[in-house]
Amino acid sequence: MIDLAKSLKNNGFQIAISSTMPSDELDYFRKHFDWTDIFDYTFFSCELKMLKPEPLIYRHALEKMGYPADQILFIDDLEENVNASRELDINGYLYESFEKLMDYFRKEIM
Predict the structure, then answer these.
(1) What is the model's pTM?
(2) What torsion, rounded to 10 degrees, do the Cα atoms 60, 64, 67, 69 define?
(3) For labelling, which of 22, 73, 75, 86 has a CA lying 20 to 30 Å from the CA of 65?
(4) Residue 109 has pLDDT above 90, yes or no
(5) Which among 38, 42, 44 has a CA at the least distance from the CA of 11?
């Protein structure tokens, strides 16, 4: 997934991450890995005190990113999170496998 994010970024897409990662894990990842730096926007529940699938976190992301909801693709492996994004007119994709996601990208995005 990190390679996909890098590829999208290199192809001119702005990318974001939204995660419910606890603060101690986030601190560890930021200290030991550089993958969080590739994202244009980061939305970590431990920092925002907001959780998916609450609408507030999606509204916050829309406001910070400044894009219309219909120009955003939200990918998540939990159906309730994807459904919540769709409630706000964000394009939601339910992640089932990397292969299916790549098929979706080839057909719909690239």
Answers:
(1) 0.90
(2) -10
(3) 22
(4) no
(5) 38
